[in-house]
Specification:
The protein is an alpha+beta fold. It contains five helices and nine strands, in the order E-H-H-H-E-E-E-H-E-H-E-E-E-E. The protein has one domain: Aminopeptidase (3-Layer(aba) Sandwich).
Length: 181
């Protein structure tokens, strides 16, 4: 299984900090719940109904892990400071629920998660990945462009919440690391 361990190169981490992006499991559910309780009440760009529905507990997290969701966490010095989850839906691998602790924003953690998401899809042979992004989240939109995602749809995910659906076709790499179409 891909662990996605990343060194400090390219991310705004301090000297002697260790940044990793790895698959999370049931024993990580309490820490994910704690992160959600910190992130979502403060996410004012989302409607209140949406924010409160994102604060899920350990049982729901563990149930999702058992029923097809893959959880991945960003750890900084072994503490989960960000995560995303993904699942297969029809012919695509869908990334959802990306969250970064407010105290760690602006340090490249979302970029690390998107890089991991793409690499995981490539290594597990998913050929299309998708994410929803609020148009007002300028940094996320810029990451979509940087990583080659294309906006394919604009819609209301819930009444009053406009999102852009982005997708990316994933190309394979040969044994030398060269792109194979």
């Amino acid at each position: 299984m891909l662990s996605g361990v990343y060194s400090v190169g390219g991310w705004k981490v301090k000297e002697n900090e260790e940044l990793t992006v790895k698959r999370l499991f049931e024993n990580d559910a309490a820490e994910v719940e704690e992160l959600l309780r910190e992130v979502w009440p403060k996410a004012a760009e989302y409607p209140e109904k949406w924010r409160s529905a994102r604060i899920i507990g350990q049982r729901q997290i563990m149930n999702e892990m058992k029923t097809g969701f893959h959880y991945f966490g960003v750890r900084l010095n072994r503490k989960i400071v960000g995560f995303y989850k993904a699942r297969v839906l029809k012919d695509a691998y869908i990334g959802e629920h990306q969250s970064v602790h407010p105290a760690y924003r602006g340090r490249g953690l979302a970029r690390a998660m998107y890089k991991h998401f793409i690499q995981f899809a490539r290594e597990t042979e998913y050929r299309r990945i998708c994410v929803n992004v609020l148009p007002s989240q300028v940094a996320s939109v810029k990451l979509m462009e940087k990583f080659g995602f294309k906006k394919v749809k604009e819609y209301e995910q819930i009444p009053g919440m406009l999102v852009h659906l982005y997708e990316k076709e994933i190309e394979s790499e040969d044994a030398t690391g060269k792109t194979v179409k």
